[in-house]
Amino acid sequence: IHDAKSLFNQLMVKEALNALEDVDGIVWVMDVTHRIPEEEKILEIIKKTNKPAILVLNKIDLIKKNELLPIIDYFSKLHDFKAIIPISALKNDGVDIVVDEIVKILPEGPFYYDPDQVTDLPLRLLIAEIIREKIFMHTYQEVPYCTAVQVEEVTEDPEKNLLYIRATIFIERESQKGIIIGKGGRMLKKIGTLAREELEFLLGKKIYLDLWVKPVKDWREKESYIRKFAIPTLR
User: Fold this and answer.
1) Which of 105, 154, 159, 176 could be bridged to 25 by S-S, CB 3.0 to 4.6 A?
2) Residue 68 is part of a domain; what is its CATH number?
């Protein structure tokens, strides 16, 4: 939740706020190296929900220990968080504690899904999210935030246990196309290989992943493209 400038970010904030009506608990992840002006606003939103909340203080590996304790003390006095957990996501330090604390605040309920089911995401959305994850991991500056992935085709060949996937990576400017493709196509190949390997693991079949890159000027400022590329459930 932040003071969004682009239409895309404004709609993302709106979606996040709307989602609070249906959640069982809230996890607020804060970057301790970069405090933001909206902290008080976020805290008021959390209080109004009357939902159990956990505060996760990330990037503790980048600050001194004597800087962390005042932050914990400050927020413990502002709200009755179920837990305040310092972590370093990069070093996987404390992440298991976050999972344990989330389990504690969730109400018991029936098993809605088969224990062997990997995800409840539609297949095309799962594919798009995995591709975009690899873009975030291996590109830099503003480029990952300007990308969207649309799966154009999924065709199965049962005899070969093969899934053909054609997907397009959309960016906002022609100059970003070179960054995504990389010198000699190396970056696009890296993104595709990593995404393919993860999809093969999750789906249990061979994957032929055909990736394309296409610029659509300022798509994050156009609601029709935002609905098409990024937030199909936009209310």
Assistant:
1) 105
2) 3.40.50.300
Q: Is residue 14 part of a domain?
A: no
State how far the alpha carbon of 118 is from the alpha carbons of 13, 121, 193, 197, 199, in Å.
28, 9, 21, 16, 11
Q: In which element (H, E) is residue 31 found?
A: strand 26-31
Angle, CA of 224, 228 and 230, to the nearest 5°: 110
Instruction: Flag whether 93 is in a domain.
Output: yes
The reply to whether 145 and 213 lie within a common domain is yes
**∠ CA 19-154-160, rounded to 5°:** 135
- Cα–Cα dist 27/4, whole Å: 20
What's the rounded Cα separation, in Å, for the pair 152 and 165? 8
* pLDDT surpassing 80 at residue 233: no
For the segment 134-171, what is each residue's pLDDT rounded down to a tens digit?
999 999 877 888 899 999 999 999 999 999 999 999 99
Q: Which of 226, 227, 230, 221 is nearest to 7 (CA)?
A: 221
DSSP string, 98-112: HHHHHHHHSPP----
| 3-class state of residue 167 by DSSP | strand
Is a pLDDT exceeding 60 seen at residue 232?
Answer: no
User: Domain check: are 136 and 208 in the same one?
Assistant: yes
| Entry field: residues in the chain | 235
Question: Of 117, 120, 181, nearest to 147 (Cα)?
Answer: 181
* Residue-range definition of the domain harbouring residue 221: 123-229
Backbone angles phi, psi at 169, to 5 degrees: -95, 115
The answer to whether 163 touches 205, Cβ cutoff 8 Å, is: yes
